[in-house]
UniProtKB/TrEMBL annotation:
Chief localisation class: cytoplasm
Annotated function: Substrate recognition component of a SCF (SKP1-CUL1-F-box protein) E3 ubiquitin-protein ligase complex which mediates the ubiquitination and subsequent proteasomal degradation of target proteins. Probably recognizes and binds to phosphorylated target proteins during skeletal muscle atrophy. Recognizes TERF1.
Top-level division of the source organism's lineage: Eukaryota
Family matches, as Gene3D superfamilies: 1.20.1280.50
Pathway: Protein modification; protein ubiquitination
Alphabetized InterPro entries for the sequence: F-box-like_dom_sf, FBX25/32
A single GO BP: protein ubiquitination
Protein's cellular compartments: Cytoplasm; Nucleus
SUPFAM superfamilies reported in the protein's UniProt record: F-box domain
A GO CC annotation given for this chain: cytoplasm
Quaternary assembly: Part of the SCF (SKP1-CUL1-F-box) E3 ubiquitin-protein ligase complex SCF(FBXO32) formed of CUL1, SKP1, RBX1 and FBXO32.
Record's protein name: F-box only protein 32
Amino acid sequence: IHSFCEKEDHNKENLFNSLNYDVAAKKRKKDLLNNKAKIQYFHQEKWIYVHKGSTKERHGYCTLGEAFNRLDFSSAILDSRRFNYVVRLLELIAKSQLTSLSGIAQKNYMNILEKVVQKVLEDQQNIRLIRELLQTLYTSLCTLVQRVGKSVLVGNINMWVHRMETILHWQQQLNNIQITRPAFKGTTLTDLPLCLQLNIMQRLSDGRDLVSLGQVAPDLQVLSEDRLLWKKLCQYHFTDRQIRKRLILSDKGQLDWKKMYFKLIRCYPRKEQYGDTLQLCRHCHILSWKGTDHPCTANNPETCSISLSPQDFINLFRF
């Protein structure tokens, strides 16, 4: 009997150790998939089914946070055609949708934002765009963190304070960027004929870029004040009715299109245009990036897809 009891205690101890090992193994696996701050939550499928009705399944599996986890935004920011689309989406989420994200989705959001900042620091492009995104996010977090105790953010308050400190650090890094002049000494913009310089300026869709370009050289400054250039910019972004409501005359009695542009952007949203967007299949109601394989039963899936703006994407999950 004594021998049997010792054997039974030994088996119990082995069983207890085995259970501890299983729990530890599961925790390590969960940490690897979900809780490592530097690893995005991984899904094999890069698409999500958007349910049409307000059902139990929709509530459980078709949320903004779940879509943010599934649609591979980490790879999208490396594509120049999708970069501005993702940044705009991050900005809209920062303004009003942070509390709609799950804990994992919020972590993915910060991970993707970090990759965006690192990309900008490396290639020194889209600096102002990311500065505005970080400022929008920081302002929103200041408002949400002040509501401590009201469960408006998932996670410990200290974690969000640390993230706010990280955002301030990113802003400082962007402010310290020194644009390096390319080593190439061939033909520059100012070497081109004036008609070509003006044609290039007409491709700029942001008036602030036009002003910045005019500060590079005196000749470019003269071209950047061209009335026709600012007129086309106003007509590209705004409707005739919006323009008529914000008419401004210069001292010479002519329409001051430059002043009108900056007044219009304070009153109305500018036109958005992206090289590539998320697409919704009207046949199977699957949301994905263009070119992503998904189980569509339509004879010609390409004709069933419609492009979604960043705001359209968010509106899909308002229910």
